Task: inverse folding
C-alpha cells in the first residue's frame, strides 16, 4: 500500500472539505445579511399621504369601477392592497369622530371626539370639535380660524412621526373643512389649512400652528384658482353613460336656492350669490379639484418628500359629503362627483410620481363614514325605511317627564341621539340615577321608531364584543357622552326627505374603503374584517415608530411587506 499517496489523498480531501465548508459558511452569512435587509422591520418612505374621502361608501369603488380611469381609484385597487371588509367600529359615524379615529388608532371612547358638536356637561353648553377661542384666525379677519385639536385627548400617528423624527419630519393637513384638516394633522403639525368660502374664497389656518401664511399659500390664494371654478357644473362624461345611478330629476334630491329642478347642468355662476358664493364650490366636484390643486401646491411649497426623513400629508376630500347630503347616494350628481374625484386622484398620484418618485411614497385612502340611501326612495322600492317626527317625539317625551318627575328640567340636553340628565335634580328628587336612565330608555322604546336604547350604566358595566352594543360602547366616552343612547331602526333617519345622511351603527354607515398603496405595501386584497382604528398602527408599524398613545386597533399584517 502506498501510504504517501494515501496521505496526500486524505489531505487533499480534507482541504476540499474545509474549503467547501468555509464557502458554505460565507454563503450562509451572506444569505442571512441579505435576508435581514429584505425583512427589515420597517420602511421609510419619503412621504406618507393619508387620504380621507368624506361620506364614501365602499360600494362606490365597485359601482363606478367601469367608469373610472386607470390612474386613480383603479391604480390604488389594482397595484395596492384592498381591505374589502373595512368598517367603523363605533357610532356616531360623523366627520369629526371619523377623522380623529383614522389618525389616532382608537375610538371616541378614548380620543373623546364624540361628534362634530356635542353638549359639554362640564360647562353646560354645546361645543364644536375643533373650536378654540384662545387662538386667532390667520389669513382672514373672520373667526373661521379660531380652532385647534385640543379636544382630541390622545396623539395621532402624525404626532408620533413628529416625535420620532425630533420634529424634523414635516406634517401638513389639508381639507375644505377645518375639522378635516385639524384632527388628522394632530397636535404637533407644522400647519393645517382649510378653505374659507363666503365672499373670500381663500385657504386659511390658525395661530395654533403659525402667525402668518407662508408665501406659497399667499401665492395660491392670489392665483385666482378658486375663482376659476365659478363655472357651470355639467357631467364629466355623457350623462347617458351614468347607468349606475338613478334618474337625473327626481323627488329624492335637493336643489340649490334658485333652481327649479335638480337636474344637470347646475348653473353655478347664476346661483352664486344666493348660495354662499365661494361656499357653493364646496357642494360641487370642483371643491375636490381645488383641494387637489392646493395639495399639489403644498408638495412644492413645503418641500414634502424631498429628503430621507419621512413627511406626512393629510388630505380630506370634503365635497363628496356636501354632494351626498344634497342629492343622495343614488344620484347622478354623486356618480359624477366620484368620476371627477377619480381624475383628481390620478392627477395627485402622477404628481407624487414626478416629485417624490415612483415607489418612494406610501398612500392610504379611506373615508370618515359612509351614508344611507334616501329613505323615501327605499320606501318606494318597498324596503322598510322612514323618518322621525322630531316635534312629536319632543312633545311626547316632555309630557312623560312632567308626568313622571314633575319637571322637564331633569333632562338638560338631547343631542347626537343622546339624553343628558341633570344630576342635581335627580338627587334632589331622591331618585336613583340607574332607575331614571332605565325609565327614560323604556319610554323611548315605546315610540316605535327605535331599534335599541342603551343606558350609561350598561356602557359602564358591560364589555360588549360584537354587534350594535359593541359599536355604541366604542362611541361612549364617560366624560363626554350622555346618560341614554338612542338607536333608530335601520333606514330611519332624523333628516329631510331629500338627500342622504349618516351617523348610525348600521353597515350602510360603517362600511367604507380602505386602500393601501406604494412603498412598504403588498399587492393584494382581503375580505377579513378590518376596522378604522387599525389604520394608524398599520402605518406606524410600517414606519417603525411608536403607536399613537391611545391605540386600540391593531396593525393589518397582510398589508405590509
Result:
Amino acid at each position: 500500500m502506498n501510504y504517501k499517496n494515501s496521505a496526500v489523498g486524505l489531505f487533499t480531501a480534507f482541504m476540499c472539505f474545509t474549503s467547501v465548508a468555509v464557502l458554505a459558511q460565507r454563503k450562509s452569512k451572506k444569505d442571512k445579511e441579505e435576508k435581514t435587509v429584505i425583512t427589515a422591520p420597517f420602511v421609510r418612505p419619503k412621504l406618507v399621504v393619508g387620504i380621507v374621502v368624506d361620506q364614501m361608501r365602499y360600494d362606490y369603488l365597485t359601482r363606478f369601477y367601469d367608469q373610472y380611469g386607470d390612474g386613480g381609484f383603479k391604480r390604488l385597487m389594482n397595484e395596492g392592497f384592498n381591505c374589502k371588509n373595512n368598517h367603523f367600529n363605533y357610532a356616531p359615524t360623523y366627520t369629526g369622530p371619523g377623522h380623529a379615529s383614522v389618525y389616532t388608532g382608537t375610538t371616541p371612547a378614548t380620543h373623546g371626539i364624540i361628534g362634530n358638536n356635542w353638549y359639554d356637561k362640564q360647562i353646560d353648553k354645546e361645543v364644536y370639535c375643533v373650536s378654540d377661542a384662545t387662538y386667532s384666525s390667520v389669513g382672514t379677519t373672520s373667526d373661521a380660524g379660531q380652532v385647534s385639536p385640543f379636544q382630541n385627548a390622545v396623539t395621532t400617528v402624525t404626532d408620533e412621526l413628529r416625535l420620532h423624527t425630533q420634529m424634523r419630519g414635516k406634517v401638513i393637513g389639508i381639507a375644505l373643512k377645518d375639522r378635516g384638516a385639524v384632527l388628522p394633522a394632530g397636535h404637533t403639525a407644522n400647519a393645517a389649512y382649510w378653505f374659507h368660502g363666503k365672499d373670500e374664497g381663500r385657504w386659511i389656518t390658525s395661530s395654533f400652528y403659525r402667525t402668518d401664511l407662508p408665501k406659497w399659500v399667499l401665492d395660491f390664494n392670489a392665483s385666482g384658482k378658486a375663482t376659476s371654478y365659478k363655472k357651470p357644473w355639467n357631467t364629466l362624461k355623457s350623462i347617458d353613460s351614468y347607468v349606475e345611478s338613478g334618474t337625473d330629476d327626481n323627488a329624492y334630491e335637493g336643489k340649490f336656492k334658485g333652481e327649479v329642478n335638480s337636474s344637470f347642468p347646475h348653473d353655478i355662476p347664476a346661483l352664486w350669490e344666493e348660495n354662499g358664493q365661494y361656499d357653493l364650490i364646496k357642494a360641487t366636484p370642483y371643491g375636490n379639484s381645488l383641494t387637489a390643486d392646493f395639495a399639489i401646491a403644498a408638495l412644492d411649497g413645503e418641500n414634502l418628500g424631498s429628503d430621507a426623513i419621512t413627511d406626512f400629508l393629510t388630505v380630506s376630500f370634503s365635497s363628496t359629503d356636501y354632494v351626498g347630503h344634497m342629492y343622495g347616494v343614488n344620484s347622478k350628481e354623486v356618480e359624477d362627483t366620484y368620476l371627477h374625484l377619480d381624475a383628481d386622484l390620478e392627477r395627485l398620484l402622477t404628481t407624487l410620481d414626478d416629485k417624490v418618485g415612483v415607489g418612494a411614497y406610501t398612500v392610504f385612502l379611506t373615508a370618515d363614514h359612509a351614508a344611507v340611501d334616501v329613505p323615501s326612495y327605499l320606501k318606494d322600492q318597498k324596503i322598510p325605511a322612514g323618518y322621525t317626527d322630531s316635534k312629536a317625539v319632543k312633545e311626547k317625551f316632555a309630557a312623560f317627564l312632567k308626568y313622571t318627575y314633575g319637571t322637564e328640567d331633569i333632562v338638560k340636553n338631547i343631542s347626537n341621539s343622546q339624553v343628558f340628565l341633570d344630576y342635581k335634580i335627580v338627587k334632589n328628587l331622591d331618585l336613583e340615577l340607574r332607575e331614571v336612565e332605565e325609565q327614560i330608555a323604556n319610554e323611548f322604546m315605546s315610540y316605535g321608531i327605535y331599534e335599541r336604547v342603551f343606558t350609561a350604566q350598561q356602557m359602564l358595566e358591560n364589555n360588549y364584543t360584537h354587534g350594535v352594543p359593541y359599536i355604541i360602547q366604542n362611541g361612549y366616552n364617560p366624560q363626554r357622552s350622555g346618560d341614554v343612547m338612542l338607536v333608530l331602526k335601520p333606514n330611519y333617519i332624523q333628516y329631510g326627505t331629500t338627500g342622504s345622511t349618516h351617523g348610525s351603527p348600521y353597515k350602510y354607515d360603517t362600511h367604507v374603503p380602505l386602500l393601501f398603496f406604494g412603498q412598504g405595501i403588498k399587492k393584494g386584497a382581503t375580505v377579513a374584517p378590518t376596522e378604522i382604528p387599525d389604520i394608524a398602527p398599520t402605518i406606524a408599524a410600517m414606519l417603525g415608530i411608536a403607536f399613537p398613545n391611545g391605540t386600540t386597533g391593531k396593525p393589518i399584517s397582510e398589508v405590509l411587506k
User: Anything to note?
Assistant: The chain has two domains: 47-379+502-559, 389-448+450-488. The longest strand covers residues 47-53. Residues 1-39 have pLDDT under 50 and may be disordered. The radius of gyration is 28 Å.
